[in-house]
Specification:
Blueprint lengths: L2 E4 L6 E4 L19 H32 L1 H9 L4 H11 L3 H12 L3 H5 L5
Antiparallel strand pairs: 1-2
Helix pairs in contact: 2-3, 2-4, 3-4
Length: about 120
């Protein structure tokens, strides 16, 4: 490729290849060298990828909420061992047995035995 000097541009600019103005020809359109069809496809794909990223974040939030469900339940119920349940859930929640144990522990009502009348 020969070394050329652009004419009609801002001053005399040296570059390789065709003049930059040829990128905006009638055949290609004026939007960055894309045809209307390619531009439409680019807009659709950009919108689609943004939507998928949004749904990906929503899915990630749902997964985290499901993973920490035992700790959330214990906190909402005012469980006196809510911090211990959170630690169990954080450390062993990735195993199914640890997660189930944390759920069972979160639903245990330790105050029920203390509130029963002594005479019955």
């Amino acid at each position: 490729m020969a070394f050329k000097t652009g004419k009609g541009a801002r001053g005399s600019i040296a570059f390789f290849g065709p003049h930059p103005a040829s990128c905006y020809s009638e055949r290609r359109g004026s939007a960055g060298g894309l045809t209307r069809r390619a531009l439409k496809r680019k807009v659709i794909m950009t919108t689609f990828s943004k939507a998928m990223a949004t749904w990906g974040l929503v899915l990630l939030a749902v997964i985290f909420a499901g993973y920490f469900l035992p700790a959330i339940i214990a906190h909402r119920r005012g469980h006196r061992n809510a911090i211990a349940i959170f630690v169990l859930n954080l450390s062993l929640g990735w195993t199914v047995i640890g997660w189930i144990a944390a759920v069972v522990w979160a639903f245990t009502d330790e105050g029920a035995a203390d509130s029963a009348p002594a005479g019955s």
